[in-house]
Amino acid sequence: MDVTSLAAAFVGAQMSRMQTAVAAKMMRMNEDQAASVAQLLQSAQENVARLANVAAGIGHNVNLSA
Q: Average model confidence (pLDDT) for the chain?
């Protein structure tokens, strides 16, 4: 093998390693986002469950005049 072939192989290996690192970082970011969305949905579900016990008509006829 000549020097050019070795250099090209080395550069290709370095690019592959960098692409793998970027892909891993993106996967971690997606996992973090999925966890945040799951937490948001859980909070929304808890809020809806609290409001399910409110009596009918609460908040419909609020007098805001001072």
A: 80
